[in-house]
Design a protein that fits this description.
This protein is 66% helix and 1% strand. The chain has 22 helices and two strands.
Length: 424
């Protein structure tokens, strides 16, 4: 069995058990995170938007045959339609909102039955971790919907107990990811690792054969779609789609600003960064839809080893710091979490192998490692929620470190790391 230790829901911790000083720390951190969140949303919406890039995920539909991410365009509507930009901007922010609600659901699960100090600390950290608010706002790609699907699966596995219910949950997740992979094929590769961890750690009372069946259900449908896209997608669509993209001037600060002086001029209002969306999307983005897997591999190779290693190291540091923070403030050690696998590492290894095509065809290795961090932490947090250690009183040192750690994540938001390459 790979289930987490579970206890009956205890009574809520009395408020009298929390000193005024500690309460002030938690309230102060919560207010700081709230102000920081509002600032990031404001900056993304009004100061340094990257909407020109994010709405481009919805430009291509199925008018010119079966193409990568064609379903995304079908959802928003034809790029030449009068409502395209309105709909694309709307879904760009909807993805952010839905993802943040998913993180909020994790925090609610942590605090629902007991509001111990460690639970409060972990709930606060969810917003500032590398896959938190900055990632939600500045990486608002369609794959945020896949991340929410993983959160829902993990929450569901903590509530169901019958084997049939577990299998149904896994089957539904696999079907949802298969559909979402038609919007962004990366979703079938990004969240399989997390889903497999959830099956092994969170699902209760299922045998090893059922675990393998569930793993196949969460991974198989999406992987089938990815293979179908790789084999049958039309790779001669960029010119056709480009001819339908309307001319429209929009803000493109990240595409136009090339120096610190230009950035300062833009922020002070002395320089504008308007570009013709037609020219930008045709010249930079749409060409990736003509790429094959081999083209993606060549593009990654062209970046060069130093840049790739730097991106990998940055992501690895983010992953390590994230796991260390969750482990330290929850009081639940990482070895304890890994121990729930009971030596069964084959299925998780298969989940990790699924992420390899992302690294091979997409240059943003930092982003892929942050996705791995997300996969692990969603399961880790829910596992920790059922452990007695998280309800133990934290030492004064941990309380004192919380504002510093939160501030560190806020000042160095790895979630702002840009995407790139054909799998972007």
């Amino acid at each position: 069995m790979g289930s987490a230790v579970r206890r009956p829901p205890p009574a809520r911790t009395p408020r009298s058990g929390l000193s005024r000083r500690r309460a002030a720390v938690y309230i102060g951190v919560a207010l700081l995170i709230t102000a920081w969140t509002l600032a990031i949303v404001y900056v993304a919406a009004s100061v340094l938007p990257i909407d020109h890039y994010l709405i481009s995920y919805y430009v291509v539909d199925y008018r010119f045959g079966f193409t990568r991410r064609g379903l995304a365009g079908e959802v928003v509507g034809n790029v030449s339609g009068a409502d395209f930009f309105t709909n694309a901007y709307r879904i760009r922010w909807i993805s952010t909102a839905v993802y943040l609600l998913g993180l909020a659901a994790l925090a609610y699960k942590l605090l629902k039955d007991r509001r111990s100090e460690r639970r409060i600390m972990v709930a606060l950290l969810l917003a500032v971790l590398p896959f938190g608010v900055p990632y939600a706002v500045y990486s608002a790609r369609p794959d945020l919907f896949g991340a929410v699907a993983l959160i829902v699966l993990c929450l569901a596995l903590t509530t169901v107990s019958r084997t049939r219910s577990v299998v149904v949950c896994c089957g539904l997740f696999g079907a949802v990811i298969a559909v979402l992979a038609l919007m962004h094929e990366g979703m079938a590769l990004e969240f399989g690792f997390g889903a497999i961890l959830a099956i092994l750690v969170l699902a209760r009372g299922i045998t090893a054969p059922v675990q393998r069946l569930c793993a196949a259900l969460v991974v198989g449908p999406g992987l089938t779609v990815v293979l179908a896209v790789a084999a049958f997608a039309n790779h001669d669509v960029s010119g056709k789609v480009c001819s339908t993209v309307p001319h429209r001037m929009i803000e493109t600060p990240f595409a136009s600003i090339k120096s610190g002086r230009e950035l300062l001029a833009y922020l002070t209002g002395t320089q504008h960064s308007l570009s013709d969306y037609h020219d930008w999307v045709c010249g930079w983005y749409l060409s990736t839809f003509d790429h094959t897997v081999a083209d993606g591999i060549r593009e990654v190779a062209a970046v060069g080893l130093p840049a790739l290693v730097g991106s990998f190291v940055l992501g690895l540091v983010g992953l390590a710091l994230t796991l260390r923070a969750v482990s330290y403030f929850s009081g639940v050690s990482l070895p304890s979490f890994i121990g729930q696998l009971h030596g069964r590492f084959t299925l998780p290894a298969c989940g990790l192998v699924l992420t390899l095509p992302l690294f091979v065809t997409g240059v943003d290795w930092t982003r892929w490692l942050l996705v791995v961090a997300f996969d692990v932490v969603v399961v880790y947090v829910l596992y920790a929620s059922g452990r007695p250690e998280i309800d133990e009183k934290p030492p004064a040192r941990a309380v004192g470190l919380l504002p510093l750690v939160a501030l560190g994540f806020m000042l160095i938001p790895l979630g702002l790391a840009p995407g790139g390459g054909p799998t972007r």
